[in-house]
Amino acid sequence: xxxxxxxxxxxxxxxxxxxxxxxxxxxxxxxxxxxxxxxxxxxxxxxxxxxxxxxxxxxxxxxxxxxxxxxxxxxxxxxxxxxxxxxxxxxxxxxxxxxxxxxxxx
Length: 106
Fold this sequence. Notes:
By secondary structure, the chain is α+β, with helices and mostly antiparallel strands. The protein has five helices and three strands, in the order H-H-E-H-H-E-E-H.
């Protein structure tokens, strides 16, 4: 079943631009994000890619992992196969976040 939950979806590009002040779209994304009611819906692949790109460009990937805790994003679906999103199981997301935090810390 396709996820039809209301709300905005967050993809990697805007999240990277939000946390990378050198990104050409940084100011625009900040302005747009201020007008959006959180949480933004996203998936674990977006979180992972955002962490990677921020780290590669001198940013702080751990910041992205705090976004669900502060209510800015909700990892509301997992990417299973092309063009299909399925509801995530809370325990799986918790384990995934724990593994990412371990990897980023050391």
